[in-house]
């Protein structure tokens, strides 16, 4: 069992932090429950690669570790350069989240990623 993001197995996800403004960039990861047979696994965003909540990223996450529904990642200007997405109970199911500096004008965009789905994600 591994995570698929937008139909790709364990990809590196690139997100951007806001420039100098105070509003975070918001990314929403939607767990497609109909394709998810591991209801106890959960989707965890962490500061170190591993398993579970030992190094869960708590600044700007909502519903971190969810077994279904959505996990929100609010990327602030102070976000670390590297985060990880991983499972609650199984090793080597996730990947890396690279946080890049924004070169664009600030905006409060919401990006959606679909987990465990073979179709491209809809963008909001």
For the biggest β-sheet, the strand order reads 3-9-8-5
Which fold does the CATH topology refer to?
Answer: Immunoglobulin-like
Strand fraction equals 35-45%
CATH class: Mainly Beta
**Helix count, per DSSP?**
0
Number of domains: 1
- Second CATH tier, the architecture: Sandwich
Say how many strands there are.
Answer: 10
Overall geometry comes to globular
- Biggest sheet architecture: 4 strands, mixed
Euclidean distance between termini CA atoms = 28 Å
What is the helix fraction of residues, given as a range? under 10%
Structural class, from helix and strand content?
A: mainly beta
Along the chain, the helix and strand elements come as: EEEEEEEEEE
| Average pLDDT taken over every residue | 80
Task: Write a structural description.
This protein is mainly β. The chain has a single domain (4-115), classed as Immunoglobulin-like, CATH 2.60.40. It is built from no helices and ten strands. It has strands at 4-5, 8-9, 13-17, 25-31, 44-46, 61-62, 69-75, 82-86, 95-101, 110-115. The chain has a four-stranded mixed beta sheet, with no helix packed on it. Strands 6-7-4-10 form a four-stranded mixed beta sheet, with no helix packed on it. Strands 1-2 form a two-stranded antiparallel ribbon. It is globular. It starts with a strand and ends in a 9-residue tail after the last strand. Residues 105-110 and 116-124 have low confidence and may be disordered.
